Amino acid sequence: MARVVVEGADIVVRLAWWEKLAARRRGLRVPVAALRGVYVEPDWWRALRGVHGSGVWIPEKLYAGVRQLPHGKDFAVVRGGGAVLCVELSRSAPFRRLALSVPDPEGVLRALQPHVPRGRRR
Prior knowledge:
mainly beta; 12% helix; 46% strand
């Protein structure tokens, strides 16, 4: 499963080897300053928006890759059947949202929450 940590001024997403292959990406690093919101989506399929771009899509099981939106892109590594961490990012970031199946979504939520700008916390 993906791991999300804050390292200095960046939010770092580390992927398992099979997620790297499926998503066609080694990992992801975005500035903490780009963070606009963070929440846990209990229904994994609701975290996916837009249309399939690149990566692997196994219906009802897995999505790993980029989702295309009318005004940007989302990056998702989502496994069916569990809650998903959703990280909303500013327009200056490479993606508008990160949707990630992580081992402890509530724990990562608590770790990222202090970095969300005031007035945007859920």
